[in-house]
């Protein structure tokens, strides 16, 4: 058994439901984070570690990608409850040793919950599952690399898939894509494919760069902030501090969300005296409790109402396509809009009036907009409204997709993408190697290829592919169909226990740990690049950094000579290469040595320069596809509880939503419960219905009567991933529609 870890897999035995909270954070929040940290790390290690979090000279929080204030303006406690939990997961004192794997067969582990697997502690030793074995057993590093290298050379490069999750440092990401492309494929799916891909696609097309256009300072200066499809109280808690600051400087905040999320209603800032004892700051001035999927009609109606307030000089100087857009929005079908959004015309008119008055508006969004069939058109419609009012490239205004993983944006900048990177020619010239030009597999295509036998090798640097991807049963079968699966990981998870014929676990250093090659760098959601220095002793002497693993694997696989061993020994050496190849990184080393790091150039933000074909920002015409559910059906969205980091389950509570001791719950509006003849507290199976005719079932969920928009339902991911059809993806971005699943609820006897 892993040292100190829970032995009992408790499941939902103690599930309790109480009324949702009306405010987020405050002292109870911090105490919860500290308690979680102390349970895993002890008191002294918790204090020493958390005080280094997000500090200059310390390490970047492995939680979300929300930026830190400039070094001089940082609090000594520049972390949140959920950052503390994320750190505790990694800096835990619990260890998984080879004896653990001798004791537990893979079939045994496959029967455990995600929570239990994660609670067993850090992986410490490279392990292999050989063909015909049901156990992982230890393997030396050199043997591991030789085994993987031989397998890679036995298949065609395009039969291999190389996944990345968004915690990988810039340096490891650059080395990884170089290795994969030198090997011969662009099969580089990443977690972005399931996350902000729709934002990237929509922004690239309309403003010529797939990244948000605001800085943290802009958020502080904004007059109006519209937060759409995002739950910052749980997923970006430090954003609440920025919203509070803006609010205190006079900003108005509008929330657009089917759920009344505590963190959007009121914030008790634990760093401020009135947050400790008082009622805190009320945040959203206007709360649009929209129906799931109603955002495109909403922004179309806002655009219609704002046409008389168009910023003509901005439009004439910087944009194209306005006439066609204005024609499309000249009229609005109010009956359809009210029905599709679940909002009243008056509510929408009030928000339009706020937008018309404001000369500094920011729209923030996250997964509530990106994981639907019409995500790309919806985000383009958000862009339309911002362009209409000239709200880009000026202080306090802009577009703000709030990223998830702490370095997911940096990984993309470093070339983790399934198409050839923009600087492919430069790399070929620099290293005299040939790089593949054909498009590789993103996540959904990778699953199809493994399912159909076109891909036979799967490797992941981080992440938990089996649990994060849609259509769980299909994904598990696809992974099992591989000849070899390879996992570079810190913690045990579902993907390790649904292996290919041969499977290897390569345990790596986390961000909190000392790395002999120096500090790494990351890029946050607002294009700021800075250093992250681990300080803790590694969880085991047998760990390698991600960069070392990639370098050694490259040497065991490739016949082309590249200076892998010098890169492995020194992050500055690989930064030197990045500086030569990736635009914006000149003088990389010098720019990340000072504490604050540097912010990458962003044409639209810095100088209203749009790198589209004609140099203009583009209005688009987006068709509204109405959604009409058959009788008795609800539109299900899958979301995060307050006690999880994606597939890592920290605990079984969702405090703000009043849930404790369990996760198999489904939130439904009281009116829908009444019309469906169902009662709060009863048990149902959730059955998803899609046009392929396959019925996907998630059994045994407790109904929770909840303030959620009528016609909608909500459940947690990853439990609900079985319901998301693999082929149900967003137009243009191919993101699984995790927030648009038509379901019926079947009572269980
Ligand atoms: N503690 C913690 N922090 C995290 C994560 C975590 O799991 N835990 N995950 C990280 C990652 S990778 C990401 S991408 C982000 C995710 O951050 P979020 O996007 O905040 O994550 P979700 O829980 O998926 O929440 C989506 C929100 O969108 C709303 N929503 C759902 N459907 C719709 C819709 O149709 N329209 C509108 N307007 N709203 C809708 C939901 O009610 C919910 O409030 O957080 C990052 N930070
Ligand atoms: N139904 C549904 N599905 C979804 C979503 C949803 O809202 N609904 N959200 C999607 C989104 S936004 C995302 S981003 C994906 C997330 O998908 P992933 O990024 O694949 O999943 P995570 O849960 O973040 O990965 C956790 C694992 O990463 C490993 N890990 C942690 N830190 C490190 C490290 O420093 N190095 C290495 N090598 N490994 C590390 C640990 O082994 C841990 O088990 O899921 C997507 N799936
Ligand atoms: Mo994400």
Describe this protein's structure.
The two termini are 37 Å apart. It is built from 32 helices and 31 strands. The protein folds into 3 domains: 95-193 and 407-596, 3-Layer(aba) Sandwich (Rossmann fold); 197-401, Dimethylsulfoxide Reductase, domain 2; 634-747, Barwin-like endoglucanases (Beta Barrel), CATH 2.40.40.20. It is globular, with a radius of gyration of 25 Å. A hairpin with a 5-residue loop joins strand 28 (683-689) and strand 29. With 749 residues, the protein is α/β, with parallel strands linked by helices. One ligand MGD is lined by residues 63-64, 82, 195, 228-231, 234-236, 256-259, 261, 290, 292-293, 295, 366-368, 404-405, 637, 639-640, 644-646, 739. Keywords: 4Fe-4S, Iron, Iron-sulfur, Metal-binding, Molybdenum, Oxidoreductase. Residues 634-740 form the Molybdopterin dinucleotide-binding domain.
What's the short story on this structure?
With 749 residues, the chain is of the alpha/beta class. Helix 9 (197-207) packs across helix 21, helix 15 crosses helix 19 and helix 15 packs parallel to helix 21. It binds ligand MGD (2 copies) and molybdenum atom.
Main attributes of the structure:
32 helices, binds ligand MGD, Barwin-like endoglucanases, 3 domains, binds molybdenum atom, about 750 residues, about 35% helix, Dimethylsulfoxide Reductase, domain 2, alpha/beta, globular, 6-stranded mixed sheet, Rossmann fold, single chain
